[in-house]
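Quick one, probably user error.
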């Protein structure tokens, strides 16, 4: 699972030896490894570069496809939101808009 989030070879590192982005990827790998029915991800790509963001979104899509895992992503990143099946926009704690989008099979940059 560490290779899926770009952390091959870092399995023996302590949290203090990892960057903030690497720590975030460890948390994501820990969530994915148990194959839960639901993953709630609050700004999962906030500290990640665009390449790792691309890989993570593809991993989420794959987990959803293979295991039927529902993935709820809270994000300010419109590119990520637009690659989901459903977007619920909030304003002042209330639903402002709800959209159902076409299913995607992968996230492509650009």
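Nope, works fine. Designed sequence:
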């Amino acid at each position: 699972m560490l290779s899926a989030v770009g952390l091959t070879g870092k399995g023996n590192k302590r949290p203090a030896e990892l960057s903030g982005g690497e720590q975030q990827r460890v948390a994501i790998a820990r969530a994915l490894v148990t194959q839960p029915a639901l993953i709630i991800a609050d700004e999962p790509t906030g500290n990640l570069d665009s390449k790792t963001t691309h890989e993570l979104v593809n991993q989420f899509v794959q987990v959803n496809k293979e295991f039927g895992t529902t993935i709820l992503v809270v994000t300010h990143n419109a590119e990520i939101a637009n690659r989901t099946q459903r977007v619920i926009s909030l304003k002042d704690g209330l639903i402002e808009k709800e959209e159902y989008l076409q299913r995607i099979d992968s996230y492509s940059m650009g």
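The chain has a mean pLDDT of 84.
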